[in-house]
Amino acid sequence: MGTATYLVALGSNRRSRWGSPERTVAAALDAIGGVIAASPLLGTPAMGPSSRRFVNAVALVESAEEPPAMLERLKRIERGFGRRPGRRWGARVIDLDLIGWSGGTWAGPGLVVPHPSFRERRFVLAPLAAVAPRWRDPVTGRTARQLLALVDRRRPRS
Fold it and tell me: Domains in the chain, please, with CATH?
C-alpha cells in the first residue's frame, strides 16, 4: 500500500497532564504525526451520562499503514494519554476514532471504515466539513458538507 489519507476524529472533556481539553487535543495531534490538516476546535455538549462539554476536531493524517495498524496506533496514543476502558459516553482525557480513509471502505475484525456512526454525529461532521468539505462518504456518496446539512435538518430547534 502507498500513502493513504485518514480522517481521525479527536475529542476530550477532561484535563490531562497537558492541561485543558483544548491543549490535550493539540498534544494528541502532535502525537499522531503525519497531520496534513486539522479543523478548528469545536465545543460540543456531552452525549450520554457525562456532564462536561467536549472539545472536538477532525484531522487529515497521511500514513503508509493499513487501517488496522492505524487504529492500533490511535489506541496506543489513547492509552499513553491515560485513557482507560470504562463507561461508554463517559468523561475522557482523549478519544481518537478512525472515521474514514482514502481507500474507501474497510471491514475486518474490530474495525469498520468509515466509522458506522459518524453520519449521525454533528460533533464529527462539523469539524470534518470544516477541514474537508468535499470529502465523499464512500458508502452514501454524500460530501461531508451534505452529511452535516442532513444532521442539522434533523436536529430539533429550541
Answer: 4-154 (3.30.70.560)
Give Cβ neighbours of residue 123 (< 8 Å, ≥ 6 apart): 11, 42, 44, 47, 54, 56
Query: Where do we find the cell 452514501?
Result: 140
pTM of the model: 0.90
Look at strands 35-38 and 54-63 and give their pairing.
antiparallel
Residue 80: closest CA among 9, 16, 7: 16
Return the half-sphere exposure (C-beta side, CA atoms, 13 A cut-off) of residue 3: 8
- The beta strand positions in the chain, using DSSP E, are 4-12, 35-38, 42-44, 54-63, 95-101, 106-108, 111-113
pLDDT in tens, 63-95: 999 999 999 999 999 999 988 766 555 678 999
Cα dihedral 29/33/35/40 (nearest 10)? 10
